[in-house]
Amino acid sequence: MSASGQKQTFGSRWRHGGALYDVPLKSERKMTPKILPSLLMAAGSLMLAWRVKYLLDALMRAQLGAETHFRSITEFLAGRQTELPPPVGFNQHVARTQKIAVWLCVLGFIMIGASGLLSAYFLWAGF
Predict the structure, then answer these.
(1) CA dihedral 113, 114, 120, 126 (to 10 degrees)
(2) What's the whole-number mean pLDDT along residues 73-77?
């Protein structure tokens, strides 16, 4: 401190109470370690949201298929249709969507977990 009691700064050095501290300029700071947990959390959350979208799409397609098949059954029972067409392709679409959704879920939770562990490590290590 100076005689007037104010802090003095010298470039990237800071004097306070007789001690001299190196203060990095904004251009010298590396923000990657501090930002990484937030980026992992955002990416994991987006993957989980994408998984939910896949599941909702599969449910919507299954509901539309069931409705179409129900209409065919009622027309067949009413005598307006001579044969009953089998539902085709719904199980394949649901199975494919289920595989993608499982991997998105696993990756999303891994990223969210890694985000929490990195945040805890950075707090413990004093970053």
Answers:
(1) -170
(2) 86
